[in-house]
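tl;dr need the bound structure. longer version: we got a ligand (glutamine) that a collaborator sent over and nobodys looked at where it sits. i said id run it. heres the input, straight from their email, havent touched it
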Amino acid sequence: MDPTFETRWSQFSAKKQAYLAYARPMEQKVGSFLTYRPDVEAPQAGALQGLPFAVKDNIAVKNFPLTCGSRMLETLVSPYTATAVARLQAAGAVVIGKTNLDEFGMGSSTDLSALGKTNNPWDFSRVAGGSSGGSAAAAAAGLVSFALGTDTGGSVRQPASFCGVYGLKPTYGTVSRYGMTAYASSLEVMGIASKSLALTEKVYGVMKGRDPHDQTSLDPAPGVARAVKTIAVLDGLTDLEPAVQRAYEATLDHLKALGYRLLPVHLGTLDYAVPAYYTIATAEASANLARFNGIRYGLRPEYAENPEDLIRKSRTAGFGDEVKIRIMLGTYVLRSGFQDQYYTKAQKVRTAIRNDLQKVFDQADLLMTPTFPTRAFVHGDRSMTPYQQKLADKFTVTANLAGIPALSFPAGLEEGLPVGMQFMAPAFEEGRLFEAAAKFATRVAAPDCPGTSLDWSK
Ligand code: GLN
């Protein structure tokens, strides 16, 4: 047994009392969890021993619900545990709950959950972002030391930026997708939200690596050890909310002051990233969500004339509007005779984006962009149309289309709300993200959310 186990466990028990007194009222205001079981037993010894963590409710944890934020799966309890979660548990970390999300991971606010409402811990009238909004909010509010999310098009990074925490989207395939409910399989990976950068790195170290249950998983190639010197930045960046623009310019100044060379680059493909992403993501979603039909899984109507009627009734009542729109869109872009016009074209754009980024990384060690063009918006904000909201995903979806790692890091507060910036690196070069973010943190540390008193990273 780890010789420090006894001491660490007694610390954990002492913290637990303080934790429960603090966390329950805090959680009532934030609403990060769909299932919350903080009164946990003694954890196993290991590198992450005694660290409570949360898991987005589209990732399987045995004996916990697995709702995906959907009426469709409201009563489903998972009979098994995702590989990445099992690895964290084996290292001593403890699951204390399942967090809220936009239904099946489709959205950017967590307001599209059918099962709960999550508020931004910085301002309860605002959204936590999404789709992993519950995870980012729980990490920011000090309810967990870290939280797992899934990132198909920015769903870990964007809520991390809204809540003032780190958000890592690893290289595609380096974390097993076994136990993660598929939305768009070729784009997504599990990621981490945490107030602690060091812990984010440690947790990634435990989660990553090949898993026989996921044929697309792989052992990350060892990164090329080299210090980050040159950071590419987008030439002529526009369309940012003024507060984000200010934070972006301040970040450029900090990076210069830290001795980095900033290299302006033009990414001609950036404007095509969102259409390509939504074509591919909806196409894959329409196939992935076909399994939810009320027969093997999901909501079952009380009465049906025949199997076809059962499926129709189950899907009509089980899925929310956004999910239905995406299934229809995906079916539309894949319909026979029209694949070339949409899906194949989107795949070509995807290759072009990958090549464009490769050229950037030939000249620079990292690429830096804002994570999202706005700070956290208020619930029910109608100032952006649903189309504009999707366009705002352009900085994040780029990394998913290319399969490369990206990290959203807290870049300070603007009028009391956090703003996040994002580093992207070539595949398997997570080390560069951590290195540069750690250096940046020597000038701008992750902010303390008002009212939070517990820091599990210490
Ligand atoms: N906002 C994006 C979408 O709605 C990202 C979702 C995600 O990464 N799961 O598809």
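gonna send this back to them w/ a short note. The radius of gyration is 21 Å.
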